[in-house]
Every structure is written in structure tokens, then in C-alpha cells.
From TrEMBL, chains A, B:
It holds the Pfam family cNMP_binding. Keywords: DNA-binding, Transcription, Transcription regulation. This is Crp/Fnr family transcriptional regulator. InterPro entries: cNMP-bd_dom, cNMP-bd_dom_sf, HTH_CRP, RmlC-like_jellyroll, WH-like_DNA-bd_sf, WH_DNA-bd_sf. It comes from the Bacteria. The keyword Transcription regulation applies. Gene3D superfamilies: Jelly Rolls (2.60.120.10), Winged helix-like DNA-binding domain superfamily/Winged helix DNA-binding domain (1.10.10.10). The keyword DNA-binding applies. Residues 159-232 form the HTH crp-type domain. The lineage of its organism: Bacteria, Pseudomonadati, Pseudomonadota, Alphaproteobacteria, Hyphomicrobiales.
Amino acid sequence: MKEQGKLRSERKYPCEKCPLASRDVFRKFKPKELDFVSRFKRGELFVDKGATVLAEGTRNPHLYTVLIGWGFRYKLMSDGRRQIVNYVLPGDLIGLQGTLMDEIQHSVEALSPMTLCVFERGELMSLYREHPELAYDVTWLASREECMLDENLLSVGRRSALERLAYLIAFLTSRARAVGMFNGTATLPITQQHFADTLGLSLVHTNKTIRKLIDRKLVRWRDGGCEVLDADQLAELSGWDPSNEGSRPFI
Amino acid sequence: MKEQGKLRSERKYPCEKCPLASRDVFRKFKPKELDFVSRFKRGELFVDKGATVLAEGTRNPHLYTVLIGWGFRYKLMSDGRRQIVNYVLPGDLIGLQGTLMDEIQHSVEALSPMTLCVFERGELMSLYREHPELAYDVTWLASREECMLDENLLSVGRRSALERLAYLIAFLTSRARAVGMFNGTATLPITQQHFADTLGLSLVHTNKTIRKLIDRKLVRWRDGGCEVLDADQLAELSGWDPSNEGSRPFI
DNA sequence: CGTAGGATTGACCCGACTCAAGTTAAGTGG
DNA sequence: CCACTTAACTTGAGTCGGGTCAATCCTACG
């Protein structure tokens, strides 16, 4: 586990200039809400690639919203087996479980340098009291996560290795595009080990399955990342319908 | 798909006599909250075993809290493959996804006769406005669901067939006991097909795996259900820690 | 007594795992 | 600039867990 990143209380990204707000997918705050969120915000966290943002089994007094970068959420078994349960992208709220439960039950690691917006968990109740619409948004985000997990579970439980992989790539591409992470070609900053640990497959078999997608010219391997050549075909191959969400909230 | 159950607006279980309230696990309502929830409640739904409570791809104007009975939440692929993503027990809130997203992305089917408390989805926002504590509880429930899904995903992705099965049985037993569903011995009202579809295994292999647990005298098969003989051993076998939650909310 | 949904079992096969050896590419320090 | 290290990616060989197919059995129920 690499060391924690830097927590700063000065603002590189004050809420009025939130890099998320400029994205069309996200709904806009009302002035009062912006005001509240601005006070709710405690600072910014900058972490390097590979850093642990949140650790399983700890109590963390913070809630985070991802502003920039990629990360993944995972669980470990005592003998070292790892299951990645989901990925986190800009706009995602993390640490909610830790706020409501006692200890957090999963870890989060950065896949790229990340910038996160830090909130005080103790303040969450006052958000609920003063801004029911924002509270509703928090629930919306939790519900959306649940929806993604359902889909991931379907994938790991019932799809073949090739379908699973195709689904995962299409899913991540779709999510990342939705928040404007790619200009032209999509390249996922993910190693084959990450794929394997997400799909419930071994590294070796994952590699061989990726080869099949490469042979079909659906993806390419570049600079230690996966370049997506045809996301639509991938989605179709997996039997997944990437129904794009409309506008969505964030905190 | 069997027909829907009966929706009644007269109250067999008025909120003041909610069968959940008497269970110690659930937190108590304040008088004002009870009052609100009582108005929020639209009626009661009684469904038979095998009935579909919620159907994937539909818009459902209701939210439900399970009062009595077992059910399961699942997703289907177009070729018929089924993945059960979780089970629903008394105290569980279902249909929240349908309230926040457009269409619901999963179905719910009754494993036993069920009684559900019906709420109007349109009223949810007023709950958020008038009772922040209850809103917080809704989020808590969503977050708890997320936590269970993470664990299920770990199981399907990384545990062996025997471990998975042991985990599932221990998990369900623990949940059901927590809400006081068993007096003495625990018997899960679940067929081997359900187990298979939860674990991501074939029916045949599930059967053979159950046999191993029977040989170890950890479970027994009775009356078309699974009688749990040693939940602790099962949990240990699977490497799962059934850390019991303390008091919890419900709506 | 017939039927149907579940549970069981055996035979056979294949998808995915493990083990083992590389290869490649990107540092890093002398 | 080169030797060394390390992380990530490849590939082949052999094995095995779990899948499929096909019967068969049990038991509740009409």
C-alpha cells in the first residue's frame, strides 16, 4: 500500500469552478446549494497512481467525490484473492458506506493520478436536513452504484469469459465517455491483472481472451492500456445494452 | 410470470402495529415519523409464492418494504440465463432503483407468500423534505444493499464452488436470523436452481457441491428446503465473517 | 394413478486454471 | 551508455473444476 496523497485545504478547484460542473451530463446546482456544498467541502486530496484512497476495515471520517482520474474499488480475501467490484470515475461519490456503516468494507486504489473533493462525514446529516434535494441526489448515486453492481454480478455469474471481457470494456468506455474522459480514441488505463480481478478470471486466461478480441480487431493493446476500437461491437458481443443515462447529479 | 398479488388499501398491519417494529434489530420511529410513514403508506400487497413483485424493464410507481416472507432479486439475459443478485427479507426496501432511474433493471419474485407495505414513489421527495432522518435511513438501506452486493460479487468472482455455497447459506441464515425468521432450526425455502443461479454455477454442479456439505453434516435437505446444521462452520469454510450489524433502520 | 417440479447420478467434455518460461518495456544506478 | 531490476505481457503444456447431456428417482398433488 503506497502512502496517502496530499490533503490540502486551499482550493485549486473552488466549487464555483468545479471541473465537473462544466460537463453536460451533470445537473447544475442552484446558488444556495452551491453555497452549501462549498461549505461542506473540506479540501482536496491529490493522490498518485497506485495510492490507496480508502482501506477496507478502517474508519474514515471523509466522503469523497472524484474530480479527476480513475480508480477502482475492491475487496481482498485473507489469502490474497482480490475481487474488483467496480471502478470510480469523475463524479462518483466514494466512502458513503464508511459514513453509514461502522467500518468500510472495501478499498479504493487510484489507477491514475487522482484529484478528489473531500467532505466531512459528520456533516452529512446537516446536508440531509438543509438540502433535501441534495440528499435525494446522494441516494440517487447510491442507487446507481447498486445498479452497476447488479450488472457486474450478472456478468461474472452468467457470461462467458469473452462476453464478460467485452462487457467490461464496453461498460468502462461508456462510463468514461459519459463524463467526457476521451476526446478521440478511448484508452483504458487498466492492466490485464485488473481485468482478471474484475472478471473473476485468472491472469493467463484473461490474456488469452484479450487476444481473441485483438484478433477480431475490437481492441488493441497500447502503452500498457487497452485501446477500444469498436465499443458498439463489444457491447453487442456481450449482450449488454449501454442505455445512456440522461442528466445526473453529483455532490 | 404468475399474476400479481392483491393490493389492498385497508390495513391488516397499520404502522402502529407494524410487525417489524417489534423486532429488536430495527430502530424505533419517533411519533412524528410514525405519523408520516403512516400517511406515506398506500396499502399492503399480498403475493403468492412464485409471483413476480417487480418486473425488469417496467416503470413501477411504488416502493415496497417487505413485512413478511422471502423473495429474490434477479436479472435475465435475452437467452434466458438468470442471475440472482440478492435476496429480500423483512425490513428490506425494494423498488428504490425504479424510483430514481427511469425503468427498473431487475425483477423480484416471491419465494414464499409475501406481505409488502406499499408506498407511492412520488411521495419520496416529500419524505426527504419533511423527515431528513428517514431520508438518511433510505440511504442507509441503499448503502447496505451495496455492501451485500460487493460481498456477493467477491463470492462469485473469487470463491470456489464449495466456498461460495457455504458463504451463501451462512449469509442467508445470518440475515434471516437477524430479523427473527427462525425459532429453532433454520430452513431456507430455496431450491437448488436458486442456489445455482445465485452462485453462477450449473444446477448439476450445485447439486454435487451440496452433497459435499451434506456429507460433512453442515446442512440437510428437507421438504424442498435447505436445513442449516452448522452456520458457524459454513461461514468459516467460506472465509466469511458474519459481523452482525447492530440496530438498523427501516421505512 | 398420472403428472410435474425438483433432486440425483453417471459419463464425458471443455473452458479456465496452474505451472513454467519467456519476452518486452520502462526505469535506475554505476 | 550499459547492466540490472521490476512490472507487465505472452505463450505452451498439462490438469481439473465445473459444464452439458441424459437418465432416473422422488414426492406432492390433482
